Amino acid sequence: MAVNILAIETSCDDSSAAVITDGREIKSNIISSQINIHKKFGGVVPEIASRKHLEALPYVVQEALAEAGMSFREIDGIGVTYGPGLVGALLVGLSYAKAAALALEKPVIGVHHLEGHINAGFLEYPELTFPLVALVVSGGHTSLVYLPRRGEYVLLGQTRDDAAGEAFDKVARHLGLGYPGGPAIQEAAMQGDKERLVFPRAWLEEGSFDFSFSGLKSSVLNYLNKCKMKNEPYNVPDIAAGLQEAIGEVLSVKAVAAAKMKGVDKVLLAGGVAANRRLREMLQARGARENIQVFWPSPVLCTDNAAMIGCAAYYKYLKGEFSDLTLNAVPNLSLFTI
Fold first, then answer.
1. Please, what's the b/e burial string for 87-100 (b: 16 or more CB within 10 A of its CB; e: otherwise)?
2. Does the pLDDT value for residue 240 go beyond 50?
């Protein structure tokens, strides 16, 4: 008998609800974006995000059910992101999920946001098998994860400072490209020369799978400030291309090295920055040289969305990993046991 999961994702500034059947079939995946609201501030304002979730979420859930052709009574469980993320935003989704679970007498299933991003790959590629290495890259996270089997996450490395997406956002702001920075940098870089400006790569200690992008960000900003002080012109597309190349090289080199170290032939790219075309090209090319397959979800499944939460929740449902109604938001929730 089919298992239908209603999933809710409100960890940052996207209000999303989805209905997922048997962990693989996306019956609906509705996303209400707040980008236009936060754009004028140059980034997400947590209080505004929370208020907009309150307004949007009931309608988003109703639309998800309608598109799936289902009623609340046909739902078997409710999956919801409970961390990490903005605490106010998380609480809106959690409150809705727990209230619905109580009213319907259905289980609520708490899902880690990064676990959701990783599971987006299994929605896109039903044939994907374990073991594998996942490179999760977004505005708030940059992590290399080894997955020996489903539900087991071994942290191999993570950023020690800025996430890759955060570096894109901050540089884009200084270049006047607006928010969100990732797509803007990618668009500008298409017109630039990626070899004209070579910004530093932080490789860290030998054998380390950690990342560091604060020095790269500072180097770009120092270059901009020097040009301004000397009243010299600078080329925005060349800067964007140089930044994108520096980030992509470090990410792709370390991801493939991690796969070789663990003896696996698959790398899954996940998270918002997984939509970056140049990163995909670099990772795929480097993987091909080492006989390592590279997978990534469609752009809609790279961004924050409830379908990925529903996929993760389904497998927890099968194992009876339910949360009780005391489940709370954990803004700094860890996925790993270190």
1. bbbbbbbbbbbbeb
2. yes
Q: pTM, whole model, 2 decimals?
A: 0.94
Radius of gyration of the chain (CA): 20
Residue 267 bridge partners (DSSP): 133, 294
The token duo for 212 is: 């560091």
**Structure-token pair, residue 203:** 């490789």
pLDDT tens-digit readout, 126-143: 889 999 999 999 888 899
At the topology level, CATH places domain 130-299 in Nucleotidyltransferase; domain 5 (3.30.420)
* pLDDT of 338 above 60: no
Query: How many angstroms separate the CA atoms of 273 and 298, rounded?
Result: 12
| SS3 category, 274 | helix
CATH superfamily of 4-117+302-318: ATPase, nucleotide binding domain (3.30.420.40)
Name beta bridge partners: 158. Answer: 143
